[in-house]
Amino acid sequence: MRVGIMGGTFNPIHYGHLVTAEVVRDRFKLDRVIFVPSYHTPYKGRIHPASSRHRYKMAKLAIENNDYFSVSDIEIKKGGKSYTRDTMKEFKKSFGKETKLFFITGADAIAQMPRWKRAKELSTLCEFIAASRPGFKLRRLPVKYQRHTHLIEVPALAISSTDIRGRLKKGETIKYLLPEDVEKYIYKYRLYGSKPRRY
Question: Does the pLDDT at position 42 exceed 60?
């Protein structure tokens, strides 16, 4: 099997994440893509992040119509701070040595790979797919990591969770930036400072 593991806070999950996963699945002929919401969410700005429970449920809602997608709560169950190396070891153990794993994340995160915990060991567990906006250049990544890294452009990455949270705080529309079921969930639980809206 060929399996993509897409890690992130998904705070909230949006079409940029979903389009990236689908483009990668198609381009790399993956049998499935697993979304892995992290337990820990860095607190940025004045907008309080959604809990891991909410982020997990929104991810489940977002992928329910794609049979190739699934969501794992492996990092949420573990709690605390998660490291890519530990998560990928768990998936490798679960799927077996014959399965080829691909870790999917943003190109900006991949650029920080040399600082990751036991980064050298990661290349023995998986290959990396760095999703970027058109025109992004992956610089300063050592050659030893470049051999295991694929850069892919995804126009939909112009959508960002930060922008969505900001729009909600200001009472602006977020329609067509994320799946409707996720949008309704956000308003139902008044996440990110949102207020109930009519549909």
Answer: no
